[in-house]
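Continuing from the previous page of notes. For each protein in this section, the sequence appears first, followed by its C-alpha cells. Read the first protein now.
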Amino acid sequence: MSQSKCTRLSGSLVKQLLDSVDSVLFDCDGVIWRGDQAIPGASQVVNLLKENGKKVFFVTNNSSKTRKMYADKMSMLGFNVEEEEVFGTAYCSAMYLKMVCKLEGKVYLIGSNAMKQELEAVGIQQTGVGPDHISGKQTDWANVPLDPEVKAVVVGFDEHFSYMKLNRALQYLTQQGCLFVGTNRDTRLPLEGGKAVPGTGCLLQAVETAAQRQAQTVGKPNHFMFDCVASQYGVDRERCLMVGDRLDTDIMLGSNCGLKTLLTLTGVSTVADAEVNQKSGCVERQRMVPDYYVESIADLLPALQG
C-alpha cells in the first residue's frame, strides 16, 4: 500500500488498509468518545473489527482511571471490551516499574487513586496520594520527613498537586538511586467548547525543574506503551494500525514504533496541522504526519459492513 502520507482514507482504500492489519490500537478521548458521549458509530466500528477477527486495544495517556474503570465506561457506551485490552498510563507505569526497573521498594506517588490501585495490583506499595498541606518554615520543608523505603518518584495527573508535593518529590529525587518516572508529557487537556485545563506534563515539568533531573515517561509517544501491548499479545508492528486524534502523541507513537497511522478529526489535531509538519522539512515533525486521515472512525463502517 504505497500511498503518499496524509492521504484521505475513503472508498476501496479503507478495505485495503483493514486487510493489511491484524491489530488496531485506538486512543480514547477524541477518537471513540468525547467526554461521556461515544463518537457516533465508534462502538459499531470496534465491535465489527473484533467480529472480523482483528485484535483491538485501547491506549490512553490518561492516568486517572484504572483498566477496569475504562472497561466499565466503554461497556456502558456499547463497546465490546475486556479489561485486559485497555492500556492506560496508570497500568503501564506499574508495569514499567515492575518489569523494566525491577523496583524493590515503595513509590512516592504524585497521582490518583487509580494509579495507587494499579501499583498495588502488581505488588508495589506507595505513599503520597491525597492532599499534602504546607506548614512550618523553609528549613522545615528542606528537612521534611521521608519514607526510607521509597526508591522511586512517579508523577501522573494529581488534582491535589501542591508546593509541598513538589518539595517532597525534590527531597526524594536528591537521594542516590531514586528512580524518576512520569506517565506522560501532555501539557493541556482539551475540553468541549475549545476550553482546556493543565495536563500532567505541567506537573512533571515542575518536578523536573525542581529536581534538575529528567523523568522517563511511559505514555505516548514513548514506545513502551506499544511494547506493553506487543509483549502480552504478540502484536506484529508491520500489521498494526494506530488510530488517534493527536499528532504529537498518537501519530508519533505509531511512527516511533513502525505502525501504520490514521488520524481522526473528531479530536485535537487537524489536517492543516499535519500538512504544516509535512512541509516543515524537520525529521522530528515528519513523524507527526499520519499515513491516512478520516473525518471520524465511523468512516470505516461501510467497509466493515460490506
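Done with the first. The second protein uses the same format. Note its length before scrolling.
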Amino acid sequence: MVDGWAEAPDPALRCPWKQIENMALLRKINRILVVLLVLMVCLLLRSTLLRASTRPRLSENRKSPKNAGQVSQEHAAEAHDVVPVVICASEERMGASMATINSIISNTDASVFFYVVTLRDAVKLTRRYIEKTKLKGIRYKIVEFNPMVLVGKVKPDSSRPDLLHPLNFVRFYLPLLDILHSRVIYLDDDIIVQGDIRDLFNIKLKPGHAAAFATDCDLPSTHETVRSIGMQTTYMGFLDYRKQEVKDLGINPSDCSFNPGVFVADMNEWKKQKVTKELEKWMEENFRQNIYSSAMAGGVATPPMLIVFHDKYTILDPLWHVRHLGWSPDVHYPENFLQEAHLLHWNGPFKPWNYPAVHLDRWEKWFIPDPSGRFSLERPDDDS
C-alpha cells in the first residue's frame, strides 16, 4: 500500500486465462496449417505419380484429334485374341515397313495389332503412310523411340552405317515401349510374311525362355546357299575370340548362331530375367573393349543377343525365318523352296527396294507406293 492505494498487479499476471485461450487458439491454428500442408504434399505427390505413370520412358505417343482413330484403336490391343507385332519404321525405309505390314494382314484373318516404332521426326510421315493408303484400316499405335538411351553404348562404325541406326536397337528395349501384351512378335523391316502370322505367335516357348529364334544351323536346304555367300552360322563369326572377355563367356565358337531379325518374346520372362539390362551391359562392354563390330557378320545388334540368349531360347520352325536373301545380288533360292517359306528376310546389303537384289517379285507384290512420294523403288531403266 502506498498512500492508501493498492499496488497494481504485474501486467503478466492480469489475465492468465486470456493467455491460456490465446495459446490454445495458436495450437488449433498450427494443427490446421499442418493438415493443410500435408494435404498439399499429398496432392503434389499424386499429381507427380500420375504424370510419371502416363509418361513413356523411351517412347511417346502423341494424341491429337488428327489421330483420334489411332488412339481408340489402342484399347483393342488389350484383347486376348490379338496378335501383337512390333516393327520399326525409319524415314529412309518407310516403304519397306509398310510392305511388311501389308504382307502380314493379307495372309491372315487374325486380329493383328501393330506397334510401329519410329523416331520423332518420322511420326507424321508414318501416320500419313498408313492413313492415306490401303493400310488405313489396320489397328496400330505409333511409338516414338528415344535414341538418347544409346549414348555410351554404340560406337560410330563406317563399315555398315545402316546397322547403327537407332531403330536397329529397339529390339533390346521391348519392355519399355508401352506394350500392353505379355507376348509379342518382333520383325525387321526387310521382311515379307507369306504364312499366317498367328501360327508364329502361337509357338510354345519352353519354360524359362524369354524368346524364340530360328537357329542358323537348321534348314539344310539353305546350307549350300549360305556357304556360297560366305555367311557365318556360328558364334565364331560374330564375337572376337581373341578378347579375354569373350573367352570368359565359355561359349563354344562352333555353337550355332541365330538371327534376331525375327523372334517371339515373352515380356514377363524378359523382365524377370532383366534381359534389357544384360544387353546394355554387353553394349557398354563392347564400347570399351571392342569385342565385336559391324564389320563382323551380324553387325552390332546381333552379338549382344547371341551372348545373352546363348542356350536359353526356344527354336522356331526354320520356315518361319528364311533369310540371307539380301547377301548377294546373284545367288537365288529355288522357287519351290520360296513357295514353302512362311517368312522371307532380305538381311544383308542388297535390299529388295533397291537394285540389284534377288527375288524382287516376291517383295514388290506387297509394296504400297508412298503417298508423300519420298520413298520410291530403285529399278533399272527399262530403256537401257
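What the second structure shows: The longest strand covers residues 111-118. DSSP finds 13 helices and nine strands in the chain. We return to this in next week's lecture.
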